[in-house]
Amino acid sequence: MVGLECFLDVVRALGMGSCLSLEGGSAYGPVPSSPGPGNKRRKRRVTGNSSATAVAPPSNNLEMWLHRIPGRQFLNGSSDFASLFCKQGKKGVNQDAMIAWENFGSPDTIFCGVFDGHGPFGHVVAKKVRDALPLKLTSQWVLTNNAKKGAANDTNEAASYQDHKDNEHCELFMTLKDSFLKAFKVMDKELKLHPRIDCYCSGTTAVTLVKQGQDLVIANVGDSRALLGTRDEDGSLVAVQLTVDLKPNLPRETERIMRFKGRVFALQNEPEVA
GO molecular function: any one (predicted)? Predict the structure, then answer.
């Protein structure tokens, strides 16, 4: 991930139901990031019923710890509400990674992400971002919420119910926006400092979302795309594009790259690739 700059969007997903949720168990039992009745002390309120839980993964064997989390799916498979599938192409190493994580910090929250690596270490970067970014997002979510909590205590509580609900949705979006931006920046810095990953010519796209209740917040970089499956007036299934592919052929994206001392040019053997 080079020069990450989130493009954020929020969609009120009315009538979606629990799309992309997962149901699963674990032979190892629950872990802190999937709070249940025995983990209430770890719960942190964002606003109303919104919450996030601080995650403290072990410093050793992070991959095994992640595999023990119930409701976290990252391999080909399906459940009652989600399906993940990735197929090897003809270019060599499969550099794609994906994740769908139910009960992400709270029972009504889901995290999903797709990462398309590029370059010699693209497959390594994509998998590392898949594993590390959700944890960084959770940590930033808690920190951002705690920072805003003191200011909220000084506000006037004599507001109407509708104003309260509107403020609740606005606060949730702003909290997640700040958390996404900080998590992406921390992830980018960590990759640049990684001793065994050369990020000069390698990186990954990232299209990520958090669905909490009927709210959907999306953050993406690169040309991986988020789509919403819905139905038209005739009942036919249609796909609604939720994100913009951030490619160098977009004037705004070219300007951003140049602003950060980057270059945009076509490959000699693949002129259609910038």
Answer: protein serine/threonine phosphatase activity
